[in-house]
Amino acid sequence: MLSTHNGVPAWRVLRVITGHFDPSTVYVFNGQNTCVTLWQHELQLCRNLLFLNISNCELTSISAIVSLTSLRHLDISYNSLVKLDNINKLRELENLRAVANPISRFQ
C-alpha cells in the first residue's frame, strides 16, 4: 500500500507533477519552482528516477534525494543548500547543476 501525505495517497501528487500513476515508471521528475513539502515523500517512491530537476524549491538539505541511487542528472540550483553531505551515495550521477546555492561543503 502506498503511503499517505495529509490523508492523500502519495501517488496523487506524483501523478499531478509527472503524469504517471506508478512510481516505478517515473524516470524524469521536473519539480522546479514547486514546494518541497508537496513531493518530498512521493519522491522516495520513484526508485528508477534518472533525471531530477528541483531547482528553486527552497531546499535546505539533500537528505530526501540521497536514497535515489539511480539518478544520473540532478539540478538543485537556486535553493538554500549549504552542505551536500552524502552526495557520494549517488554513484550513477553524471551531471550535477548546483548554481546559486551558498554551498560551503561537499562530502
TrEMBL record:
SUPFAM superfamilies: L domain-like (SSF52058). Signal peptide: none annotated. It comes from the Eukaryota. InterPro entries: Leu-rich_rpt, LRR_dom_sf. This is Leucine rich repeat-containing protein.
